Amino acid sequence: MIVGGFLEFLLGNTFPFVVFMSFGAFWLSFAATLQPQYNAYGAYAPAGSTSPAAGLSTVGFSASFGKSCICPKKIRITNRG
Fold this sequence. Notes:
Blueprint: H1 2-11, H2 14-33, H3 59-79
């Protein structure tokens, strides 16, 4: 997604550039959080949980994803006239 965002930037498409780069950066940071050598998930995991990702939820990211899916459709519908 990072590469796709960079290529969209080269083409001059700013909206796909922002979307692809933000999604790519999120997934890279989320993957780094789950790496055992970093132990970043240890601060978020509830006591006694068996899954290292039990305390990580992506509610905010899911909300921004929903917003980025709905807003362009609304803009396109209102620009049709």
